[in-house]
Amino acid sequence: MAGWIEACGADDVDEEDVIRFDHEGRTFAIYRSPDDEYFATDGLCTHEKIHLADGLVMDDIIECPKHNGRFNYKTGQAKGAPVCVNLKTYPVKVEGGQVFVQID
Amino acid sequence: MSAVSFSSDFVKRDYSLTGPSARSAVETGLASAEWYHTEIPRKAMKELMQRSDGPAIRDTVLWLSLLVVTAAAGIFFWGSWWAVPFFFAYGALYGSASDARWHECGHGTAFKTRWMNDAVYQIASFMVMRNPVTWRWSHARHHTDTIIVGRDAEIAVMRPPDLFRLAANFFGIFDVWYGMKALIANAFGVLSADEKDFIPEMERRKAINAARVHVAIYAAAVLAALGFGSWLPLVLIGGPRLYGCWHMVMVGLLQHGGLADNVNDHRLNSRTVYMNPVSRFLYMNMNYHVEHHMFPMVPFHALPRLHEMIKHDLPAPNTSILDGYREMLPAFLRQLRNEDYFLKRELPATAKPYREEFHREDSVPIAAE
Ligand code: FES
Fold it and tell me: Per CATH, which fold does A4-102 belong to?
């Protein structure tokens, strides 16, 4: 298993928001929940490969900007059409004001 | 405004989703492409995207109340001419306003609360005679591949335009005929090749079940009409999709009519039109159509704000429905002679130039006005 990768500063993500993080040709989405927890998923929607970081975070949901497909970004669960395939999630930790993602 | 047509050795347009135009759209990268959008700072975009239940609850309470009141008055005056104005209003609220509710709730942007979107979506889908599953997927495709021939299943005006069909659809004639045929086929478990192209396998059973519910309700309305020996049940259920859809068609044709196809810039293929408040209520602000296509996450109530924010980058909106028709109808007539003709509206000096890389490089403009 690969190690922890430094993705961004904890303050780079607003509360209840998401940013994009690219690493070695892959793209991820880093979320900060309304209760100040951090999460990470694949960066592209499983419907049509649109960047989720342009979408809207509402509670524990990320809504895709293209067709409004919704995922639970904590579990990756797809919440219904037009998204049918779950999103891959990654472990996250915050240390020294930095957000780290464990990428496999 | 300029109007452009290309000297055309274009392949004749084939609007089926499984034909040569579909294949060429995929091969040339027109399909599933990245679209132009105006730059908006993330903070402003987040504000615009915010959901709330208030505006849609007010809208829905008003809409349903007006439906109930006009239907009750129509029933009360049934048999006299006094019923006509009430059914005129009821028809527009049922056969036209349902389209906008279907649309906005299908995007999930009307309400913040998911079940409210889903409930209104189901009711409106029934009223507008659309399979709620099929049309969710076709509309997703419409946003991925807006007016891309062979990919978009919701192109209202195919080229060359069939003006008889367009006129008949102000009374729902073709839409209801084909819509009903599709619903009945779906209810019997049959999906067309086009439907299979955009509905994933795991969703097809849901489409069949939804069609069965719709067909059962229509069958009950027909039986009621026969049982009571009266047209009234059908004037209330199903009928408004014929006599009340004129407003939906009137504003819907303006969305993309006469504009470019096979481009990846919504400023070239969509039209924003300033409209009167009644039409905006029936249409849920979808008159801001370029804005909606560029940013489908922005709810109906925030579209006027979005428009103000990005209008420097868009062609000037048409000033009224009439103004839109004055622009669009002559273009339809020109397309009868030359189906490659389209309107290309001028951008303001503050706008970024159009993205036209998907027009064929060897195309030569032969008309500009
Ligand atoms: S691309 Fe995300 S919902 Fe379609």
Answer: Rieske Iron-sulfur Protein (2.102.10)
* Domain locations in chain A as residue ranges: 4-102
- Cross-chain Cβ contact A47/B108 below 8 Å: no
CB contact under 8 A, A66 and B295: no
Does A79 sit in the ligand 1 pocket, CB within 6 Å? no
Measured between alpha carbons, how far is B123 from B210 in angstroms, rounded to an integer?
12
Query: Is B296 in contact with A67 (Cβ distance < 8 A)?
Result: yes
pTM more than 0.95: no
Regarding the beta carbon of A45 and ligand 1, being less than 6 Å apart is answered yes
**What are the residue ranges spanned by the domains of chain B?**
2-368
Closest CA to B186 of B129, B139, B240: B129
Nearest neighbour of B140 by CB, restricted to A63, A65, A67: A67
Tens of pLDDT along chain B (369 residues) come to 665 554 444 568 999 999 999 999 999 999 988 999 999 999 999 999 999 999 999 999 999 999 999 999 999 999 999 999 999 999 999 999 999 999 999 999 999 999 999 999 999 999 999 999 999 999 999 999 999 999 999 999 999 999 999 999 999 999 999 999 999 999 999 999 999 998 999 999 999 999 999 999 999 999 999 999 999 999 999 999 999 999 999 999 999 999 999 999 999 999 999 999 999 999 999 999 999 999 999 999 999 999 999 999 999 999 999 999 999 999 999 999 999 999 999 999 999 999 765 444 333 333 333
Closest CB to B202: pick one of A54, A55, A84: A84
Instruction: Tell me the angle at which helices B132-144 and B204-228 cross, rounded to the nearest 10 degrees.
Output: 130
Question: Which pLDDT score, from 0 to 100, does residue B1 have?
Answer: 61
Tokens for B15? 């609007």
